[in-house]
Amino acid sequence: MSGRIEQIWTKRFHRGPMEPVSTARLQVGCGLADNADFGGKRQITLMSRERWEIVTKAMGVVLDPILRRANLLVSGINLQESRNRVIRIGECRIRLVGETRPCERMDLVHPGLCAALDSDWNGGAYGEVLDSGEITINDEVRWEPNRLRLNKKS
Length: 154
Fold this sequence. Notes:
The protein is mainly beta. It contains 3 helices and 11 strands. The chain starts with a strand and ends in an 11-residue tail after the last strand.
């Protein structure tokens, strides 16, 4: 199964507005260049267009996916239960670390959005960048064949 990048967003500062870009640079171990979360635990966040549409349709509203505040909007890829899976975007790989849980700011966008995103990975996933490189809207997105096995050294 493969999909594609539909949108890329960055933010210049914490809680700042999301800004659409057509291309972005990923840096191994740090995340999305020129993004406020660069080097943090959540180096990059992804959400599925299909999940966003299911959630907003069930709420009876039409909302722009930029309001979710993720870095990447992908289509054709199911992010549910993707912990420790590796996703390839163009020439870059990202290890998905966990589910992106919505914060109370989602209810400022629309009442009830936080609760609607807070189950079944509806809010997307976050990960760490494994390869540096450039990504562009319409790049192919696909799963690597096997889950990443982590060394359990202390």
